[in-house]
Structure prediction request, 443 residues.
Amino acid sequence: MVQKGPGALRVTGPLSIREAKLPMTSQNRTSHIRLTSHPEPGGAAARFPIHWGAATPEERGPVIASTTNPADRNVIGAHGGSYSVYRALAISARAMNPAQRPDLTNTHPTAEILPQPQWFEPGKIVSLDPFGHRVAQDFGQWIGEGVDIRPTIAVTKARLNLPEILAAMAGHRLAADGHILHGSGDISVTKIAVDPVWHLPGIAERFGTSENLLRRTLFEQTGGMYPELVTRPDLKVFLPPIGSITAYVIGEVAAIADPGRKLACRVHDECNGSDVFGSDICTCRPYLVHGIEEAVKEAQGGGVGLIVYNRKEGRALGEVTKFLVYNARKRQEGGDSAATYFERTECVAGVQDARFQQLMPDVLHWLGVRKIDRLMSMSNMKYDAMVESGIEIGERVAIPPELIPPDASVEIEAKKAAGYYSPDGTPGDNALKSTVGRDLEKF
Ligand SMILES: [Zn+2]
Prediction:
């Protein structure tokens, strides 16, 4: 049985019996579930309005997605993307206090990422919060006064060590300089994690749809997970439960926005099977590491290298779909063939590719990219998205043929036929039909 109260439902019955066992660690009374379907009188939407694209953090307003004080929330969704679900499990298991707030002491960025003109160009950045790394600086006073404002971007330093880079050093393609590339093969990098923060009107415009239709579709396709998408048109910002972006910068971060310095860049979409486990059905890891090698060379030559890693597993369809597609490809009549590569994906997933590169350039604009001198990507979708968003592209660098694993020729030939950049042109029908992959019996 439920009774309506202002902005909340009182729930009685089995739920309240279960919840009565929970410690009172939250500011919420545990017998109440606070619904977010209606604006609260004097609520955050009025107190902390977000003016997307405004010139200063104060005018723009903070993104408040935390649940420790629901009355302060001015966005839909939760921090951490899909990891918000694990946070819920930790709290359910009583391993975490739901009222916990981060202590941001010493968490500030290791490299300054200063405001760029693109931050304020209307519609240029719609899928991340440009001020997301500066929260502790820009909103420190409010945080001190008890408003739970959290960073959505973090900037740190690391060293990378990859066997392919050691091989490149042994093969004299790369030499240590003791600063960018060390004798041990370590590469010094700045790495930047970016959680998605979507400005819904801007996202709708990017995809050529209406905000209403986008909100409704997001609501329906997440199984009704975020009712405010359809009940709270006053909330324009959504933190979607999807993966983040990581940018790896080799060389000086400030050089990225300097038109006088050369930029080598690879924008890479996650492929766990190849990137981590070395699966040979695609070119993902070899191309990624080639991108890192070229990024090191550019930085050593006085420019800067940038690798953007997007969590978009299996063309953003997920690994289960991806593995089903592998089986459908391998078991079809005639075996795995470049001629039917995209068809098989569409049969299983209903779409050939769900990565939709329209949002991809946002992180580049955030870093101040205006031109890329060397782009290590053959994807026409990525290239078109960058160019359409105003980024000038110099040289396009294809994956060297010797780096293509044997079973991955099906993928690369199919992609070339579908419009991927290739210095040797588009493969013909016969070439496509004759490009076949390993049989399932031969693994
Ligand atoms: Zn792959």
